[in-house]
Amino acid sequence: MKEGISFFETSEILKYSNFGYTLLGQIIEAVAGQNYSEYIQKEILIPLEMKNTIIDMDETNLTKHATGYKRKLPKQEREIFEHVSANVMNSATGLSSTVEDLIKFYRAHIFGNESLFPDYIKREMQRIQFKSKLADWGLGFNVANLLELKIVGHGGGYPGFITQSGLIQEDKIIIVVLTNAVDGPARILLESIVRIFGHLTKKKEEFQPKPDETIQNMKDIVGFYDSDWGTSLFSQIGPRLVLIAPGADNPVEALQIYKHDEGYKFTAPKELPFASPGQKIEFLDGPDGEKVFIDSHGGKSKRYKFSY
């Protein structure tokens, strides 16, 4: 280390380094005069009330942690990844948190919020410092553009876990995706959520209520519906009932806005030729009291909830 470790010349190639972030943690300890965990607790976690964030899990708090899994293999159950402590590398990869706490962290990086530091520091962190073919980087943040939306954020991987999170500064939108498997589709999920926001931004007039239009509460019918052909997600956006393909990489590619006829009767749009254009559907109570929707061909799909 004293002689230096270098594979390329300075600023020649972007190489993400957990070892580099570990050294930054050691520098923080040297400058602050206290260990890294204590410093982060005092300067970040306590001020932001991130009460469910831990710098490095150990046997005393491991029962609070999600179980991490190995990749899914055909015809086999997933194997559990035994927890690995980050130890001295906790500044690079040891922190465990929740969606709610990470939203608090990203909220502190929105311009105008000076709970951690002033805007000029945030602007420098979120400014592109290094460009490469696959990713642009600020200081600690990846900087990406998707559907004309600029996202600053970070992804992470740890034995049994894959995560992706980001902030759309212009719209003050924060997205956090945490998965507990090494093949968890965290990035796909984040990009799908961004596509939904982008679609709603472009088509926002379609989702605005018309003058004197009454907004019906559809909470009794929205949700996931199962059939032999797969899973559908009905959701309410403003006054509109929309159908989304939750399993698609781009869930808005075949998004459908249903026309409300009366009660719980709706008509599918006519634009998508492979999605039963103009078909009538009706939501009814099933024998067990759970909602089912019946299409004009008599096909039935039952609403269900995911269990965790």
Short description:
By secondary structure, this protein is an alpha+beta fold.
Task: Tell me the overall shape.
Answer: elongated
Helix content: 10-25%
CATH architectural designation of the largest domain: 3-Layer(aba) Sandwich
Q: Please give the domain count.
A: 2
Structural class: alpha+beta
Q: What is the CATH topology classification name of the largest domain? A: Beta-lactamase
Number of distinct helices: 6
Kindly report how far apart the N and C termini lie: 46 Å
Strand arrangement across the biggest beta sheet = 9-10-11-12-13-14-15-16
Q: Stretches where pLDDT falls below 50 for ≥5 residues? A: none
- Total DSSP E strands: 16
CATH superfamily of the largest domain: DD-peptidase/beta-lactamase superfamily
Q: Estimate the mean pLDDT confidence.
A: 89
Radius of gyration: 24 Å
> Which sequence of SSEs, written as H and E, runs from N to C?
HHEEHHHEEEEEEHEEEEEEEE
Structure description:
With 308 residues, the protein is an alpha+beta fold. The chain folds into 2 domains: 18-202, Beta-lactamase; 223-304, Beta Barrel (Lipocalin). It contains 6 helices and 16 strands. The strands form 3 sheets. It has an 8-stranded antiparallel barrel with strand order 9-10-11-12-13-14-15-16. Strands 3-4-5-6-7-8 form a 6-stranded antiparallel β-sheet, sandwiched between helices. The chain has a two-stranded antiparallel sheet with strand order 1-2. It is elongated and about 75 Å long.
